[in-house]
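Lab meeting, action items carried over

1. Structure of the three-component assembly. Owner: GW. Status: complete.
Input record:
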Amino acid sequence: MKFSARSLFANALSGHENWPEQFPDKEPKKEYDVVIVGGGGHGLGAAYYLAKKYGITNVAVLEKGWIGGGNTGRNTTIIRSNYLFDESAGIYDHAVDLWDGLSQELNYNVMFSKRGVLMLAHNVHDVQSFQRHVHANRLNGVDNKWLSPEECQEFVPILDISQNRRYPVMGGALQMRAGTARHDSVAWGYARAASQLGVDIIQNCMVTGIRRGPDGAIEGVETVKGYIGAKKVGVSAAGNTSVVMDMAGLRFPLESYPLQALVSEPIKPVVPCVIMSNAVHAYISQSDKGELVIGAGTDQYTSYSQRGALHIVEHTLMSICEIFPIFRRMRMLRNWGGVVDVTPDRSPIVGKTPIEGLFVNCGWGTGGFKATPGAADLFAYTIAKDEPHKINAPFNLDRFVGGRLIDEAAAAAVAH
Amino acid sequence: MGEFRRAGRGLINKDNPVHFSFDCKTYQGYEGDTIASALLANGVHLMGRSFKYHRPRGPVGSGFEEPNALVTVTRGKGRMTSNLRATTMEIYSGMEASSQNRWPSLGFDAGAFNNTFSMFFPAGFYNKTFMWPKSFWDKVYEPFIRNMAGLGPAPTEVDADVYGSVYGHCDVLIVGSGPAGLAAAIAAAKKDQSVILVDENAELGGSLNSSPSVVIDGKPASEWRHKTLKALSKASNVTLMARTTAVGYYHDDFVGLSERLTDHLPILEGNQIREKLHRIRAGKVILAQGAIERPLVFDGNDKPGVMLASAAQDYLNVYGVAVGKEAVVFTSHDSAYTAAFELADANIRIAAIVDARIYIPTSLITMASDRGIDVHVGKVLSGTSGKKRVSSAEIYDPTSGAKETIKCDSVLMCGGWTPSLHLWSHSKGSIKWDAETGVYLPDVANENCVSIGASNGDFGFKAALDAGSKIGGGRKTYTVEEPIFGTGEVFSSLPSYKKSSKQKAFVDFQNDVTEKDIKLAVREGFRSIEHVKRYTTNGMATDQGKTSNLNALEIASKALGKEAPQVGLTTFRPPYTPTTFGAFCGYKMDDLFEVTRKTPIDAWAEQQRAVFEPVGVWRRAWYFPKAGEDMHTAVARECKATRDSLGMFDASTLGKIEVVGPDAAKFMNKMYTNPWGSLKVGAARYGLMCREDGYIYDDGVVGRIAEDRFHVTTTTGGAPRVYRHMEDYLQTEFPELDVWLTSTTEHWAVIALNGPNARKLIEPFVEGIDLSPEAFPHMNVREGKIFGLPTRLFRVSFSGELGFEVNVPAQYGKAVWEALYEAGQQYDITPYGTETMHVLRAEKGFIIVGQDTDGTVTPQDAGMSWIVSKKKKDFVGKRSLARPDLTADGRKHLIGLLTEDSNVVLEEGAHIVADPNQPIPMDMLGHVTSSYWSESLGTSVAMALVKDGFKRMDETLYIPMGGGIVHKAKVVKPVFYDPKGERLNVV
Amino acid sequence: MFLIHCPYCDEKRPETEFAHAGEAHIVRPNAAEQSEMTDAQWSEFMFIRDNKRGDSCERWWHVNGCNMFFNAVRNTVTDKFVKTYKMGAKRPSNAQIQKWKEGV
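Predicted assembly:
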């Protein structure tokens, strides 16, 4: 059933009794052309694009819990593409292109809100670094504009730009096409659209092993619901990539860290965009519901516990209140943790693996949500064509051998 | 005393009437009242509007579980707080409270339009619409949705309050001061344990405060409570904390407590701390959080006047308030009978007890009939009427189909009890489903904690008291007389004659989630309770599902035909109740947010009206403007003065590490790319450090003070990480080396003197060092005295001029600086800041690590192959530098740029292309890393990282700035000033 | 905030005194080994990590304490420390870790 104001109206008259399942729960078939491990936005999206763009519909998405239950449903929903290097700008801007129009593409409103992302500069080094981004982005065709402190305040009236603060606002870089989206809807929208094209979405189906043939190539996966044959397997299991790759006998350049985020109680609109501060180290936006959505850095140790520490939350809120002292009376409503897989250069790995038929999309660190449609599309391309698209080609595993790293964080360097 | 007050009941102070206002109307309550209890005492139930449909709402509960009665309290400038629960906010004289999420008024709310058309706004409706035409989303739909968002108003002023935070330790932390918590405290205190007992409420005692018929060890519960609290407050090893919420349970029995100190006070004085975060490390945690009553899900259960039976009981017993004149009790649990009887005994007419169950203890029915109360067995409420207050309820008999309307002004509901698992769940303790009572209970602990009493599913006073005593380490068993707590039955859905689509049976009262929304979610394929929650937003309101989660689970499970555990339970996340940001910040705000490190000379610079810049955790003098000067003119003057005569610069922020030991040189060889064995004592050398991946990590001048002693300097920002890097390698990779590292950054003040008169200035004051060029050439270090104070004097230059760096113990830094400044007047000595330092070094092509290099630049890329030893077999980064991509063509090289128009100062960060006319995306060659106006040269100078830059000497490149502006620049060697270095040797 | 036992101080101290320092028992090849290693082998040393779900060996630095680096076995699912031990001790076998867990 197509979603529209009309169908909503018609269903209202019948008491909403006739809506069909958005993504029917399937039992696994014996074999698929492609099995995607991981039912987050990236995995579901890859399945959708495999079916939609490449006509590969004999696809299963295996999810160990409930779809969208990993980092897709645990992030702060920020979308932006104002990255420095050509490679990163390329992959994230591809995603932003797809975000714009995703609701219509999926016939599912993912509420992509182009509210703008404003990154605040608090010292001379920030100014240099952000201007470097702005110039690179301009010549790359990525929108990103430098704002003076006064222009920052005009855009965000609650911003205090007095220069005697501990971290004065010395300007900011604003990407207008950037913003937020409703995270759960992305998973559900892809799941529904993929289901409609014949993809099987199988929840509560944890993968326990990866089976390879005598030639070493992929044959299928062992799961808690039994063995499932697969010509190709795409692993898109953020937070557990190392664990899944270990089943295939591969060790990966990944470490998994807890990442916490939190929301406040809902209040009337006050934060007009996403505001990020690297120097103070926090970011904030306001959801459609009115909650302030706040995030910061990872805990220092590796962990899969999805449980973070109090002092991280304290520091995050201190940072937010340093930028916005008016929020000190606000109250934290909910605080949660996710697990992010981080590569040595903090850029993702999207491509083939040394094992024939095994593909991987991982290592997005804290940047996975924003890349969802782009990563999914490119991962589908890579699986379908058995070779990476030119946009994701640089994000291969070999770069760690040769040394051609894509290190955005290093490029931002540190204060001197 | 109004008609809804009951004399002789409650903990309020009836001698102290308190006047406060709600929506600009003044009401009277008493000290000890909450906003809700005082308004109810005045017959006011309508206190808020729901989130989505803006339906009129009254309080459902009496405490922290309250979903509905949310208010905004204003208290002068910077003290507006929204979304406060009226049920927990204590009133004080002059309090100004107002309702929220309504316009223009609480009584008439235009947003209630949504309610009229609620059929079009079921769960997840927004996923299905607002998509066409596409442009309308940005311009029409989303702004509209956003405008409707939020409950209370957003703050507009900086918070006027201050907050605090402390650490604490105890043997036993007890959360909850009901019978279980108190009994545990007594027992633990007797065992000489240090005990902290916390309770979120203003009055300690929990259910003891609302149980007039309970007798403990021969004393009424209230008296036992009083006596116990008195004894505990006298015990030196016990800390009692009211108004304190245990907000989260973290690793290794670390619990965050938020204590509210001033919100209830009538007068605020000075800088009182409003809230304090206590981070408690406990030996053991006893969770005695109790249980929360469960609402029943039936059509019309959201009308103001419909509330939990226990809430009505609390209002009567704690506040002496009757919630109405005639109430209907609707229950599926025995406990509501006690509530009904207590209310009846306080002259609140119980119009009926409607019990959905068929089997009910006869004793209860007898006790009801003794009081003249009708019990409707096996019947339900199928609806209520009334707009802003319930006026009648409809009793429906599912067996016969009979309906009966019964007049009432309140409906008290009880669907059983939900043990509070929040903190247990934060601690990652496992839980188990108890099918009989339809609740989750604690199972296996993950931390050193136990859950007792009602929060462990052990209901009743005796059970709680005995469990408390035992867990606290005692053996006491209590003698208790108490009404039957009894048992109940869980109804995942109540029978009704109405079509499901015609009912509005609310599950989540604040977020307007109805039973049919949950069924819709299931129908649409959402099978996990997490999905149902997210799709319907059930349990995501400010009460975080304290009253709604289990009802939603039951409804979803039934719709799925599964047992509840198969559908799951949404995880509890900290905090237990919404907690003020300020409490997490504690005192670390404004000036105390983060340390600002200042050099010993900072105060002098401040006196001289220097402009400062933040550099990492430091603040550094940026430039020293004279009257009327802007930054440009000040810097030009400072540069010129330095090159012409003498400049002085505070370099104290430079990182300093003392590397000492027999193997010091060996260690230095490992850590730096260049060799150190050959460095003579008294000589200094520029050192470059790579990470193991081969990229430049840090640099600085290193002096050899003795055979076994190096004075290492690092970049300002790099000091801590370089120290860590060194310690890491020393301890874990090269433990065989006999070396000690000491961070000495704070030990030395460093005064850099640059300019042709530098030597002349210091000569008269230096003892024990021969300053002649022959005896003390460039790149040397000597120990001696200056002004009679010990110094390590470096002859180095970061400006290209004759230069000295005077290191003196930090405490003498300012005095030496001042003495040099005074003595330097004859040379027009000019203090300069970081900006001039940058210009001077850029004129010479000296790099700043972090500006001209980032984490992607190798020594070769920076044109510094000369400093990478070919002879050394190993140093950190050596092997990585041999990787193919680090030696391949096409790498970016650090070069100089001279603009065609010498007046144009390029923008740092601007990108460089070979062909400015190519279409976007352009093929970028690199970017400008440093760029300044050089007063000395009368031209701008720039450094840049450019692809294959070394091969592009004399090539013209372009810097497109947008808006049609393109700068032209020629690639040159990055040494602009005095390329032969003759200035260093001015005599 | 963890409580971490520093094997040098022989005391349990709060996490904020310590800095996590990555996976343990990754030995840096010496000069001779380095020169013989292929780029792939070198990359493995540099970047490849077990990142285990479960008992995992890691390094901590008592930076705001005794300044010593030490090793620990910690379970990355429960976050519980099994044991901390001094730098230089060999990587414990699974059997040894099991014994520690059982308090042997």
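2. GW to write a short summary for the group page. Key points so far: Chain C touches chain B at residues 1-3, 14-15, 19, 21, 28-32, 34-35, 37, 39, 42, 46, 59, 61, 63, 67-69, 78-79, 87-88 (CB under 8 Å). Residues 62 and 72 of chain C are 12 Å apart (CA to CA).
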